[in-house]
């Protein structure tokens, strides 16, 4: 009666997902965003007969994925000299009829302007966006966020790649030679085979030995009335995780790493934006100031100065910018309090270094019931319980739905930086809005967007970023969080994936084919 039953699932087996739909297991894993592709899924469930009608006693999952797909090695050899660049290139455009992203082969290759370099893309970066809200790439694809004057009409704000041509007027020719591996911050044009970018916005790829945290899905398997149920939730998997859910044990071991192109594509927009809003505007480092650029003074980051602005409220903290901000706070001695969209994202951020947080939406009924999650109390009340004086810095990409709660949560002399409007920019009941809190709490209220800034501004920002943050990247103290990599041919799927709020951190686009030169 104590016989042990072994159940081995292969990709050809059919299972019930939440008791509703039958799918092939390979299709299930393909839809869950577990990596470039699943190399091996081996599930071993051991149970005693007495427990068959309740739950499995032990679940052991070994989940291995391949390394990020390697780019053709000869590609770099091809660009060690100034090659003849084709007049037409591949780029992602919005189909005028379907309004979907498609890959076109007939887009004019950009011409170099003064002080620009031409780069051949290896990876393109796409910034994670919460479900149903407006980040730059999705907004531009929908026709709601046009590029600034003079910028490319093609979507994409950051890339990693190889320099294939340098304009004669460039002042940093020694550092930006043809064949140099670089990453860049763009005002547009990233979803293309080639992109021209001002030299001030180009950064050599950092030498990162540890390629970073890998975000993936954990699968919970259990038996109920002889039916196999599968649930998935997200976690950070650079370690072996052991969870217990009503006598169901889950073990995950994942081996995966990303190459330098992937890491480089995940850095510019998220890491530089996070640096700007936390240190330049949030003044998280104290009162030191450096060089002046127009109306902006740069912050000289000093870990010993991070004391007066110690508590940082980070909204949408599981995003690319958010996960970066949590790591900055951890490394510079700041307390990060986060708002996120699920219990799993909250735990992820806490593992990353956050001191506390609140879930504003719970997506999965099963997890809500069994994890004590649900829709949590107001974040302002939760934050004030931990920090009675409030948050010294509020980093807000949400907008109107959090506005009144931010007023409650922010401390006296606090700095409130708005860099996005995920819930909209128009305040509800705005006719009754009272601005007296700005005086009463002596609030500094700042709005910013990096895309439209001048080359001079970006140059100094990037230089300060290189000084203060690149060493932390190269030492492995902070790392880009990468959720999933899509082929450039599947750019629309990447948008859909992000719009569905299925990722934590960055989603990337990969050029998989070798680019030939004429």
Q: What's the level 1 CATH class of the largest domain?
A: Alpha Beta
Tell me the fraction of residues in β-strands, as a range.
Answer: 25-35%
Low-confidence stretches: 1-82, 125-134, 212-256, 287-295, 362-375, 513-518
Q: Supply the helix-strand structural class.
A: alpha/beta
What is the overall pLDDT average? Answer: 70
The biggest sheet, with number of strands, parallel, antiparallel or mixed sense and barrel status, is: 7 strands, mixed
Shape: globular
GO molecular function, one term: NADPH binding
Pfam family, one: ADH_zinc_N
Protein name: Enoyl reductase (ER) domain-containing protein
Keywords: Membrane, NADP, Oxidoreductase, Transmembrane, Transmembrane helix
């Amino acid at each position: 009666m104590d016989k042990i039953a072994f159940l081995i699932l292969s990709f050809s087996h059919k299972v019930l997902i939440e008791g509703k739909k039958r799918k092939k297991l390979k299709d299930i894993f393909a839809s869950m965003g577990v990596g470039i592709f699943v190399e091996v899924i081996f599930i071993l469930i051991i149970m005693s007969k007495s427990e068959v009608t309740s739950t499995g006693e032990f679940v052991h999952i070994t989940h291995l994925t391949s390394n990020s797909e390697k780019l053709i090695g000869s590609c770099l050899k091809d660009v060690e000299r100034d090659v003849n660049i084709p007049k037409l290139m591949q780029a992602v455009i919005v189909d005028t009829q379907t309004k979907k992203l498609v890959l076109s082969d007939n887009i004019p290759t950009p011409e170099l302007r003064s002080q620009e370099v031409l780069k051949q893309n290896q990876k393109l970066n796409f910034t994670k966006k919460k479900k149903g809200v407006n980040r730059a790439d999705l907004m531009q694809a929908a026709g709601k966020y046009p590029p600034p004057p003079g910028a490319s009409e093609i979507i994409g704000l950051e890339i990693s790649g190889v320099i294939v041509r340098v304009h004669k007027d460039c002042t940093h020719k020694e550092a930006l030679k043809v064949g140099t591996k670089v990453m860049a911050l763009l005002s547009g044009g990233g979803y293309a085979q080639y992109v021209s970018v001002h030299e001030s916005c180009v950064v050599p790829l950092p030498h990162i030995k540890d390629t970073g945290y890998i975000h993936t899905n954990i699968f919970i398997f259990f038996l109920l009335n002889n039916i196999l149920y599968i649930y998935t939730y997200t976690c950070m998997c650079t370690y072996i995780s052991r969870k217990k859910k009503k006598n169901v044990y889950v073990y995950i071991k994942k081996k995966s790493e990303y190459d330098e192109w992937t890491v480089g594509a995940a850095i510019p927009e998220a890491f530089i934006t996070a640096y700007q809003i936390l240190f330049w505007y949030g003044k998280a480092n104290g009162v030191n100031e450096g060089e002046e650029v127009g109306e902006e003074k740069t912050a000289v980051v000093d870990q010993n100065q991070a004391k007066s602005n110690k508590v940082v409220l980070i909204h949408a903290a599981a995003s690319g910018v958010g996960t970066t901000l949590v790591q900055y706070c951890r490394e510079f001695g700041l307390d990060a309090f986060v708002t996120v969209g699920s219990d799993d994202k909250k735990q992820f951020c806490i593992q990353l270094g956050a001191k506390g947080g609140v879930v504003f939406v719970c997506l999965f009924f099963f997890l809500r019931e069994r994890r004590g999650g649900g829709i949590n109390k107001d974040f302002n009340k939760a934050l004030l319980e931990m920090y009675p004086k409030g948050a010294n810095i509020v980093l807000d990409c949400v907008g109107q739905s959090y506005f009144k709660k931010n007023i409650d949560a922010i401390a006296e002399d606090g700095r409130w930086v708005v860099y996005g409007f995920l819930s909209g920019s128009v305040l509800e009941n705005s006719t009754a809005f009272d601005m007296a809190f700005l005086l009463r709490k002596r609030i500094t209220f700042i709005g910013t967007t990096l895309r439209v800034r001048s080359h001079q501004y970006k140059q100094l920002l990037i230089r300060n970023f290189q000084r203060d943050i690149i060493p932390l990247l190269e030492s492995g103290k902070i790392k880009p969080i990468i959720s999933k990599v899509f082929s450039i041919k599947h750019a629309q799927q990447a948008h859909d994936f992000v719009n569905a709020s299925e990722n934590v951190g960055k989603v990337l686009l990969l050029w998989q084919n070798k680019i030939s030169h004429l």
